[in-house]
Amino acid sequence: MSTEAGKRTALILGATGAVGKACLRDVLQNGNYNKVITIGRRPAQLDDNIPQNNLEQKTVDFDNLEASRAEFRNVNDVYCCLGTTRADAGSAEAFRHIDQGYVVNSAKIIAEENKSQETSTTNNSKLSNVHFLYCSSKGADKNSMFLYPQSKGQTEDGIIKAGFQRVSIFHPGFLQVEEPRKQTRLLESVFGSIITPINRYTGFHMAIPVTSVGQAMRKVASQDATKPIAETTQVKYYSNKEMEDMTKQ
Questions:
Q1: Per-chain mean pLDDT for the chain
Q2: Is residue 82 within 8 Å of 137, Cβ to Cβ?
Q3: 48 DSSP assignment
Q4: Which among 78, 22, 16, 73 is positioned nearest to 224, based on CA atoms?
Q5: 184 to each of 17, 20, 96, 145, 205, how far by Cα in Å?
Q6: Mind listing the pLDDT tens digit for each residue in 102-152?
Q7: Bridge pairing between strands 55-59 and 164-171
Q8: CB burial readout 106-128, b (16+ within 10 A) else e
Q9: How many CB atoms lie within 10 A of CB 249?
Q10: Where does the secretion signal sit in this chain (predicted)?
Q11: Which residues have C-beta within 8 Å of that of residue 239, sequence separation ≥ 6?
Q12: Beta strand 174-176 with 164-171: parallel, antiparallel or unpaired?
């Protein structure tokens, strides 16, 4: 797995969603990768003005990832923006199956298929030198009483335990989308009309554009690309404010 500048490979999960598509655009326009791969249930649709000469889109069955192990090999940075809502999924069980199961199962396979050649001196294990960057949510807490934050927190825990040297977790607040949702989300529309002006004039850092989330994820990956191999999983969390500050630099 090449790690030289300009010879790295990015993998984006969930590139058809609001954050994932913004992340894909930013990585294609500004990332230092010789190959960008998307893996999803369908290809992402991009405008012709977005450079796509190094883009490779793959479709998989997330309910049978074992059949697609080869698609996850030889990557350096993984941007995971895969997720759903209870309403879109149809039930709490289906929500967990997609929002948590798909993400954690993908993370485990990526870690297994991209093992580091360097052996840890402390526990003789081989952590994957893939940098796994996950877009979670503000308030994620595996011990929460509520479905959404609890699932997000449990997903974070599963990623951390998957076996990576480096995990970065992003906690955005209310997401300000670029494109209209395919399905109208009434509560999101109402909340957005209230929270967006409050966020703009108060500086409470309650909301963030999806473009800023994607840009912050790419900047963190770029900054950490040359860091030395870790013997244990190094985990960093990024708040809404920290992401906003990164995009202003």
A1: 86
A2: no
A3: T
A4: 78
A5: 14, 18, 21, 27, 24
A6: 999 999 999 999 987 655 444 446 899 999 999 999 999 999 999 999 999
A7: unpaired
A8: bbbbbbebbebeeeeeeeeeebb
A9: 5
A10: none
A11: 138, 171, 205
A12: unpaired
Cα distances (Å, whole numbers) of residue 114 to 36, 38, 104, 126, 198 = 16, 17, 15, 10, 44
Q: 12-62: per-residue pLDDT in tens? A: 999 999 999 999 999 999 989 999 999 999 999 999 999 999 999 999 999
Question: Which amino acid is located at 74 in the chain?
Answer: N
Contacts of 201 (CB under 8 A, 6+ apart): none
Q: Rounded to whole angstroms, how far apart are CA atoms 113 and 76?
A: 12
* Amino acid occupying residue 51: P
Burial class (CB in 10 A: 0-12, 13-18, 19+), 48: exposed
Domain ranges of the chain: 9-248
Write down the architecture of domain 9-248 according to CATH.
3-Layer(aba) Sandwich (3.40)
In whole angstroms, give the CA distance from residue 154 to residue 146. 12
Task: Give the model's pLDDT for residue 210.
Answer: 94
The one-letter amino acid code at 113 reads: E
Q: Please give the DSSP secondary-structure letter assigned to residue 161.
A: T
- Mention every residue, 6+ apart, whose C-beta is less than 8 A from residue 63: none
- pLDDT-derived band at 190 (thresholds 50, 70, 90) equals very low
Phi, psi of 182 (to 5 degrees): -65, -35
Structure tokens at 201: 């004039």
> What H or E segment, with its residue span, contains residue 106?
helix 103-113
On whether the CB atoms of residues 125 and 231 are closer than 8 A, the answer is no
Amino acid at 11: L
Which amino acid is it at 236? K
What is the distance between the alpha carbons of residues 60 and 159, in angstroms, rounded to a whole number? 20
